[in-house]
Hints:
Elements (H helix, E strand, L loop, with lengths): L1 H18 L1 H13 L18 H17 L5 H25 L4 H29 L6 H23 L1 H38 L16 H10 L6 E9 L10 E7 L5 E8 L2 E8 L3 E6 L4 E8 L5 E7 L3 H19 L8 E4 L2 E4 L3
Parallel strand pairs: 5-8
Antiparallel strand pairs: 1-2, 1-7, 2-3, 3-4, 5-6, 6-7, 8-9
Amino acid sequence: MEILNTLAVALSLGTLAGLNLYLTVFVTGLALRLDWVALPAPLQGLEVLGHPVIIAVAGVLYLIEFFADKIPWIDTAWDAVHTFIRPVGAAALAVAAIGDAHPVFEIVAGLLGGGMAFSTHAAKAGTRVMANASPEPFSNIGLSLAEDGLVLGGLGLLVWNPLAALICAVLAVGAVLWFLPRIVRGVRANLWFAWRKLKSPPDSEKLAEPLSKLPERWDALLRRMHSSKSPIEWTLPCVSRKGDKLPANVFGWIVSLSEEPGEIYFIGRTWSGGVLAALDIRGAEVELRDGFLAGWLEIRHREGKPCQAFSFDQSLSKAAREAASRLMDDARLVARAPHSAVPMISVSGDWTEVAG
């Protein structure tokens, strides 16, 4: 039981260090220095955290992180640097918590502590990248305060019941691993949009119209997954947003086929293979919006479902607007058919009814 409690402390400290290494060290060292907690014999290796120099250094670094962590994109740069620091620091904490154990046990504890820290760090950094898609700082401030609260709460739980803290840490790491593919897709998409925004040409040089054909490999994938031989009317590269037809952050192309009015297609790729989704625009509301990193086109039916949206990088803003206009023309033609619903389209928030 004593060994299990020692391991629980080591791994829980590592998990919390992945969120905020400096706060974990500062609060733990301060608690030891002020005798708020008494370490049992197996955990005497952590006494070094109560040294005034370690407390002072951790406190200063936490103060810097406290402000850097709340500024959009500065927090992402800070997290990028700490991708190497937090897991190493967590491994050192785990080894110190183990104390004078067998070297094999120390190495295993260090690896587990560092690994658990990396998982929580990845979740923190990935969440921040997705939050930075919005220019307002309030989400960053809220996330930063919530992370600090989790660290303080986790340390309190660790003092009260190390095994309960370990269970919570394992569940947290398990949740991170479960959602990791979605986190990776979200981070990749937002970093790509940020990079494209930096490289976006002036309005006068932006692509004015959608493309008339797919790249060869994408066209081959479309024809392999869709039996129609209809020529492509227009197409644009995009990234899917979460909706009823597709998962979020799948890179691909939105395609309109000239012989299939009233429908558009999304062709994309995921780790598991190609993705093809057909979207019926008859009776649908279509809205084109501008965003901080990317604009997006949303297609939804009056009943609420199905609803699907696609994001376009800033360099395609003009082409996306033209694509929305072509969708409106397509919807107008479909609306002339008997008993078809009257679609509506909005460009930049101004709703325009399309008469049959």
